[in-house]
Amino acid sequence: MSHDVVVIxxxxxxxxxxxxLAREGARVLVLEQARFPRFHIGESLLPxxxxxFARLGLDLGGLPFLRKQGxxxxxxxxxxxxxxxxxxxxxxxPDHAYQVERGPFDHxxxxxxxxxxxxxxxxEKVTDVDLERARVTTDRxxxxxxxxxxxxxxxxxxxxxxxxxxxxxxxxxAAVFCHFEGVSDEVWQTDVLPAGNIKIxxxxxxxxxxIPLVGQRLSVGFVRARGxxxxxxxxxxxxxxxxxxxxxxxxxxxxxxxIGDFSYRNTRPAGPRWACIGDAAxxxxxxxxxxxxxxxxxAMHAADVLAPALREGREADPDLMTSVAARMERPYxxxxxxxxRFYNTRMVxxxxxxxxxxxxxxxxxxxxxxxxxxxxxxxxxxxxxxxxRARG
Length: 392
Fold this sequence. Notes:
Blueprint (H helix, E strand, L loop, with lengths): L2 E6 L3 H12 L4 E4 L18 H7 L9 E3 L1 E6 L4 E6 L11 E3 L2 H14 L3 E3 L4 E5 L4 E4 L3 E9 L6 H6 L2 E3 L6 E8 L3 H8 L5 E6 L2 E8 L3 E8 L6 H10 L1 H7 L3 E2 L3 E4 L3 E3 L3 E2 L2 E3 L5 E2 L7 H22 L9 H23 L2 H7 L5 H11 L9 H7 L2 H4 L1
Parallel strand pairs: 1-2, 1-10, 2-7, 4-13, 10-20
Antiparallel strand pairs: 3-6, 4-5, 8-9, 9-10, 11-18, 12-15, 12-16, 12-17, 13-14, 14-15, 18-21, 19-20
Helix pairs in contact: 1-3, 1-8, 8-9
């Protein structure tokens, strides 16, 4: 049977696109190599995804996920702490997001795509993609389509095959992380439940995260900008951080996971009858938790362009996804500039802990880290994106 769209990958971007396209009447097939639910990193979402959840008909507040009001930044070496609440952003910036466990969250989205009418195949691995014919071959068979969406995440299937993956060299290089279960009642009630914030710890050669998850659990990870990481990196990081030691005291530590090479751009994210969405199009260092949020927004915009094109028979237009790429360029540029300054200048660190920061710039910064980046009235974002010569 031929399909209108074959989506490779059933993560948040793939499931979002599949659900929205299926609701528009498209015959959608999702090919996912894993069996859901499965473990995945990337648990902290941004407020900019609230409109996507509304489109999908999801109320995360009524689900077993943790409401997130903002972020806390800690520099333990200097004894500095700063709290950023999304509610303090520029007018119109959404005031909350969520911390999610990716296994149940991703499974929820995949089931939503199936409920919308998409055909979902789990534990089916794609082995070849013929872009000229829009044919996808797996370890079970071959599928013809009118359009192919690559939502394979950091596997970036098409980018690696087309050799269009461009690494970003000056960001974090690798991360090591684990989950802790059974966080103490005192820590949970005092440090977590009041705001549900992610805690970001500034470190000499990178940074660390502490993300609270429902059920008195914490995701804790360390990102390094230089050298290699190993399980010992996690041990050393935990031992050197009084904050993480206090938060995880008495909790049960789960398996250690490592990931690397996680900052890149796909220089050719679309072509005739195919496109890459989510992390398959771009992945920026996880410093500001952009992965899932930008991926779902990218998927929504792609579906909004593809659905009418399928109805009108325009899916082979080589420029079909040009507007999607242009729309996503703004958040990619914004967060790339922000992360670059974090790793290579003092600007972001100074902004975190400045005793006096111009109020409009602070509010603008908060709107940016909330993902509210398509507005034109943010002076902080304008300064961030200004050419180097103009910045003086």
